[in-house]
Write a structure and sequence with these properties.
The protein is an alpha/beta fold. The chain has one domain: 3-Layer(aba) Sandwich (Rossmann fold). Helices cover 40% and strands 23% of the residues. It is built from seven helices and seven strands; from the N terminus they run αααβαβαββαβαββ. The protein has a seven-stranded mixed sheet, with helices on both faces. Helix 1 packs parallel to helix 3. The longest helix has 21 residues. It is globular, with a radius of gyration of 17 Å.
Length: 222
């Protein structure tokens, strides 16, 4: 029991320190919610294989901090959809950080959406809607200001499959590793790269980029 307590404190310190390095301030409530999410992920992952990452320290870096790094890029978006969210990255993390925004979390994998229902219930995330469906089949009553995805598909497929979800002045935020030159070259002519941000995520040695894509007639971020 003592060993688990030490491990928990170390993970919490890693998360708090990493957020600080990202320039993100975590309240006590946000830190506690993120740690509860991590504990649920560790527990469920043993039975349901939600992520290939098993080391809790790597989960903090590659899942929680990697997701947190996108938070400053949300701007004034009111409605956000995370497409291909898996067990909730980055959607659950962003929802914890932004109770004033509405997040739809979509994935076609039933065991992952069932896990997210448990997280939503445990953390009382009233701003989260979970959708177990394919993105092409999902037709919400209102479009989204931001469509975010993390290693979901190529940029071309992301735009093609999700175009019906984005508001007229909305954007796509694609989370990538290496800068995807080839994928950008394959984008349709009516979609442009508005912004590319290279992220330095504490504990992650690999390159991380976030690309903001908009309709070609847009000139400013939404």
């Amino acid at each position: 029991m003592a060993d688990h307590s030490v491990a928990f404190e170390q993970l919490q310190a890693q998360l708090a320190d990493g957020a600080q390095k990202l320039g993100i301030s975590l309240s006590e409530q946000q830190l506690a919610a993120l740690m509860e999410y991590l504990q649920l992920l560790i527990k469920w992952n043993k039975a349901y294989n939600l992520t290939a990452i098993r080391d809790p320290r790597e989960m903090v870096a590659l899942h929680l901090l990697d997701s947190l790094a996108v938070d400053p890029l949300l701007g004034d978006a009111r409605r956000v959809i995370d497409v291909g969210t898996g067990p909730g990255f980055p959607g659950i993390v962003l929802a914890i950080m932004n109770p004033q925004r509405q997040f739809d979390l979509l994935d076609s994998n039933g065991k992952k959406t069932r896990f997210m229902f448990q997280v939503k219930t445990a953390l009382k995330l009233a701003n989260v809607t979970i959708i177990n469906d394919r993105v092409e089949a999902y037709h919400p009553s209102e479009p989204f200001d931001i469509i975010v995805s993390r290693a979901f598909a190529s940029l071309q497929d992301m735009v093609s499959w999700c175009r019906h979800l984005v508001a007229a002045d909305g954007c796509f935020l694609a989370m990538k590793g290496l800068y995807p030159e080839d994928e950008l070259a394959a984008l349709p002519a009516d979609i442009q790269l508005l912004e590319s941000v290279r992220l330095e995520v504490p504990g992650v040695d690999a390159q991380r980029h976030v690309l903001r894509l908009v309709a070609a007639d847009q000139s400013i971020p939404s």
